[in-house]
Amino acid sequence: MDQLESEFAVYEAVFQATGILGLAFLFAVVSETVWDVARGRRKSYGETLANGAIAIVSALLERTAYGLVFVVGLLIATPLAVFDVPQGWWTIPVAVLVADFTYYWMHRCEHEVRLFWANHSVHHSSPEFNFSTALRISWMDALIEWVFFIPMILLGFSVAETVVGLVVVVAYQSWIHTEKVGKLGWLEGILNTPSVHRVHHGSNARYIDKNYGGILIIWDRMFGTYQPEVEPVAYGITTPVNSHNPLVINFREYTNIWRDMRYAESWTDGVRYLFRPPGWRAEARQDGKKPAQR
Asked: How many Cβ atoms are within 10 Å of 143's Cβ, its own excluded?
């Protein structure tokens, strides 16, 4: 019971902290929007309003995600843990580091597996790049992404440490959705900076599927997915959504997958449409061609 109470106390504290941070970031979003409009840099509110509408539902679902981590982690994963990570001043920093490493692979999976891209493409589908873009989080995130962090609990981190690590990694990325900060010198090769993340949101051929790191960009340098900003970024995805409707934005790619599976010539090709990279086509495979970019 003591462990349950302790874990739940941290769970509640995390949500109080994220609530405060969320309000502060909302102020930043509004301030940036007013600044841009006053200077004629933003002609339409369409994308910003769509991002805000999506964010309201995402925020409500977020508690569900962390609740799932709490319940599944404490009742199922914790008893199966291979190790018991000792408690000390270094435990949380290490948990954040491991969470960041986990985030890299989750994020890469979201770009390289179409089923997960259907979820993550929501965040990439805006043709604009500003603070409000950080709010454009798929409604399916709450049901999918938490699963990737259960292995941290199986390794011996507590549920609280895992949740704190995940929250820190996600919260860090809020401020990097901006064009108002240039390159940051030697930090560019270490941290996920605004410049690095602009590249990640680019639909330029050389920018697609690059810079997956959450806080640290060293994972990308280690695994061959790092790309510095060397040319102007064309934001968005290669097949634009062309809609401000939150329902269309959230579920368009799922309907595309269903269409491809429905008309697949075999059930194996149907399954491939789920797990192959975005842009994979059965006819391209038969012709010996590379998959088209997403």
From this structure: 14
pTM: 0.90
pLDDT given for residue 52 in this prediction: 94
Of 253, 278, 256, 241, nearest to 50 (Cα)? 241
- Identify how many contiguous H helices and E strands the chain contains and give both numbers: 12, 0
Question: Which ranges constitute the DSSP H helices of 73-209?
Answer: 91-112, 114-124, 141-144, 150-154, 159-172, 194-200
Residue 211 backbone phi and psi in degrees, to 5: 60, 70
All residue ranges of the chain with pLDDT < 50 are 287-293
SS3 254: helix
Q: How far apart are alpha carbons 87 and 60 in whole angstroms?
A: 32
Q: CB neighbours (10 Å) of residue 141? A: 19
Q: 217 near 190, Cβ under 8 Å? A: yes
| Residues found in the chain | 294
Q: Where are the beta strands (DSSP E) in the chain?
A: none
Residue 155 dihedral angles phi and psi, to the nearest 5°: -80, -15
pLDDT in tens, 46-61: 899 999 999 999 988 8
Spatial separation of the C-alpha atoms in residues 153 and 82, rounded to whole Å? 9
Count of CB atoms situated within 10 Å of the CB of 246 = 21
Domain chopping of the chain, boundaries: 2-223, 246-287
